[in-house]
Amino acid sequence: MPEPTALDTLRATLTAGSYEHRALTVVHRWYSGYETANRDPDHQGEIVTEDFTLHRPPQSGQPDVHGRQAYLDFFAAMDPAQANAHHLRSHAIEHTGPDTAQVTVTHDFETAGPAMNGSTLLQYDLQLVQHPAERLPRISICDLQVLARQDKPFTDALVENRVLAFVHYWCSLLEQPADSAEELRELLHPELAMTLPDGRVLHTFDEVAAWYAQAGELVDVSTHHVIDPVITPGEDGDHRLTVDFAWEGISRTGQPMTARTRHDWTLTDTGERYLRLKRFHVTALEPFTPVTAEEALAHHDAAR
Length: 304
Prior knowledge:
This is Nuclear transport factor 2 family protein. Pfam families: SnoaL_2 (PF12680). By secondary structure, this protein is of the alpha+beta class. It folds into 2 domains: 6-150, Nuclear Transport Factor 2, Chain: A, CATH 3.10.450.50; 169-303, Nuclear Transport Factor 2, Chain: A. It is 29% helix and 43% strand. It contains 6 helices and 12 strands. A hairpin with a 2-residue loop joins strand 3 (83-97) and strand 4. Helix 1 (6-35) runs antiparallel to helix 4 (158-175) and helix 1 (6-35) runs parallel beside helix 6. The chain is globular, with a radius of gyration of 20 Å.
């Protein structure tokens, strides 16, 4: 069997990066599902399989949960007065099969309310299953481990996790474009103003769909590195995100490319599955540049 070329390695690396965004979308949606007072079992149910199993740590004194419906019954019965927060510390992804992966995350879990108050460093070992007809993988098994008890004050994380779920989902849609832009529709605010580097301003779904189709015609596969995100919550539900994206891609003609952009977004929380993009302004810090596969791989490694 011939040795993989640098272009082969780059393509595999970019494909793995796109999966990482899909997996992190699921993680941040899981977190935020527990953090909002208006918990939605339907939205939470979208990210677990029918045979989902939740393995709780022995010291919790609570039984494991078997089956999607049993989990959703537990989820729906949670006290909305109990506030929860999850602050992601680390994540690692190991692909265990063509449609499966193990994702290990560690996070600070903080809770405050009538049931209990406290902070714990937790580890989740998640088994993810990718259904071919769906964009996002689903969690089939969640193993919880308590790594350490902590003495930390409660710090709300709902806006942070809602914003990051949007960012990772948005990136996943751009990196491996679908034939249709329909999945973008629920992400766009009716008052959208999307300013592109060339000065064009997009306002409607049809305009965004045309831009999306054009990007899909030019780029075969790509990945974005989320660099130094700064999230500023707004009291009116409009949250500001400033972030840089380092980008590597392969064009439809097989040409490796790199770029770096700076983004300033306003995301509105309407209580739906995802926030909605209201304002979008992007500035090119490094233009889209043809490079060798080796240079693209070096750019990828430097950005991680």
